[in-house]
Design a protein that fits this description.
It contains five helices and 15 strands. The chain is of the alpha+beta class. It has two domains: 87 residues, Phosphorylase Kinase, domain 1; 136 residues, ATP-grasp fold, B domain (D-amino Acid Aminotransferase, Chain A, domain 1). Helix 1 packs across helix 5. The radius of gyration is 17 Å and the shape is globular.
Length: 227
């Protein structure tokens, strides 16, 4: 296999059979040593986080695939800390989709004049560009279309898939007494028909989850969430 990309939380390798291998790392994003799934920099390393994130990702990808949602997931090798996936074509240089059930984080930083911390948002969907230099700016449906990143119809499909996936994750966590505040997802075009599919990961490092009113850190979430 050949290393093709070194990411913040995963390294990406190409395999001889055309598939892709993701190696999960113990690094987490945040600021000033504090975990934040919406941050653009690695802020801390937590021993065992990579393995725990892989276990959670494999669990949710299998559950989502069983629900009929397209994904790039093929298999996971938990003992090796790796996941094999199908190659995916990015939208532009990459977009991220956030589904919010309660207001917190960057939503409050932008809309604090109107929003209150923890305010219900009922699965509000936002799309951002993957652009560290510009702090992952929000982008509208019309702007995505005008820039040739996503058509309006693809945006609508992306929004629908995001809500389906996010509500599934929310309901699964709720059965453990956990409340999902928000989750960050990635999508790409997969396969010869270039179908829009869920890619990347669904792990503690990409969501905010609360229990009894307190925010869980990544390792606590991994211990409490399904595996």
């Amino acid at each position: 296999m050949k290393l093709v990309y070194t990411g913040k939380t995963k390294d990406v390798y190409s395999l001889d059979d055309g598939r892709v291998l993701l190696r999960f790392k113990d690094d987490a994003t945040g600021e000033n040593g504090v975990f934040d799934p919406g941050a653009n920099e690695v802020a801390l390393s937590i021993e065992g986080l990579g393995m725990s994130n892989l276990r959670m990702t494999a669990y949710f990808f299998q559950k989502i695939r069983d629900a009929g949602v397209p994904t790039h997931f093929v298999s996971a090798a938990l003992a090796k800390g790796t996941m094999t996936v199908l190659p995916a074509e990015m939208f532009g240089r990459g977009v991220e989709v956030i589904c919010r059930f309660r207001s917190t984080g960057s939503f409050m930083r932008r809309y604090g004049l109107y929003a209150k911390e923890g305010q219900p948002l009922d699965g509000l969907v936002e799309v951002t560009l993957k652009d560290d230099a510009r702090k992952d700016p929000l982008i509208t449906r019309d702007a995505l279309d005008a820039l040739g990143i996503l058509t309006g119809e693809e945006h609508d499909a992306l929004k629908d898939l995001t809500r389906r996936i996010s509500f599934l994750i929310r309901d699964d966590l709720a059965r453990k007494g956990l409340e999902l505040y928000d989750v960050k997802l990635e999508f790409g075009r997969v396969g010869p028909d270039r179908k829009i599919a869920l890619i990347d990961e669904i792990a503690a490092g990409s969501m905010r989850v609360y229990k009894d009113g307190g925010k869980l850190d990544p390792m606590d979430l991994c211990r409490l969430a399904p595996d």
